[in-house]
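Go through this pair.

…
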Amino acid sequence: MTTRRDFLSLSALTSAALTIPDSFAQTADAVKQMQPPAKPVIVTRVTGDQSIQEAYQMLLDGQDTLDCVHHVCIGRENDPKDHSVGLGGLPNEEGVVELDSCCMHGPSRSAGSVGGVRNIKNVCLVARKVFEHTGHVMLVAEGAERFAVDLGFPRENLLTDDARKIWMLWKENNSQMDWWGPSMTQPGWKDPYADKPAPKPTMDLHGLSSLNPGPIPRHPTPNWIPTIRVRTQKLVQMAADLGIPPEDRLFAAEQVLWPTTGTIHVSVVNPKGEISGATTTSGLAWKLPGRLGDSPILGAGSYTDQDVGSAGATGSGEENIKVAGAHTIVELMRQGRTPQEAGLETLRRIVRNYNGDMTKVRLLDMEYYIVRKDGAYAGCSLWSTSPTGKPRVIAVHDGAYRVEKCAYLFEGASLEWPPF
């Protein structure tokens, strides 16, 4: 039974919730009124093909922003050598390829998503068909596959021969190190690198929770070269026994040690201020069947707001879901943060979820791709380099194609998970 006191208290809380501070409203209006860029802007990962340049020409020709976004995604989905997306993606622990994708079309404020899809290569297009042909936003698993087939998408075997052999190499060498066991947030979790000291963070918890980007801490990571060299040599020998061609054995070994996590996100804005974004992936290699990461989750793996901008992610999907990463970035930009400030703050929130415990943070990885309505952009990463020592970078096209290093929180690279 609701008393008069309860009703008055509830009314007061509702009024407070609906009251937007003038400064926030003014900032949001200022962002909304930003002028679009003079030239289109594309932000994504390096693709190794001409799809970004082709998509940029599509934008110059006046084609829809989501068509251009998906042109880049399709290039990766169709490439059997890209083991992180579409055809040739590394499978789950049972050897089955499962794909995820989502997209948002700014001009129409439409959104679609599919997850855990088997046997359909171009899931980025299936995600778009969800909002074009249904009143739903997300379809998953067998239902999403049947939906795609009904619309004319062909069923095909997505496990290529080289991906199958890499999976077999993993099974023979590393399958006891998998995704089973308690998460890092649970009491039963044990540090697999307990004998390796973790770097200590230099930022306090107040700095982690602040919306103001504080000093960026940098930490060295342990030198793993001797251990990696021995393990790689062993895997190369095993690859030979599995019949993997000599020229592919080192790559196969690297895929077992550091499975491809090159999920692709693309964000675009054109001179009309029209914005779109999409993410597509084959997810974690060797994952539990049915696992969904952040890529099919609107607001986590990808988020677009026509008034503000677009953002998306690659990396530790579970961690990005917990901070609603892409949505958080867009909302911070709505509050007046630059793309880089918004990206770094969202990374701090991931670190804050572990109270700055570097024993756990060193097992995480995250990279954000961000573009604002006025064409300002940023790439932000948790670590400065990949586990193989390559700098974290983004691909940008705003009339000139180039590759730029990401802003980052920590110097060095994350450690492998599951551990070898």
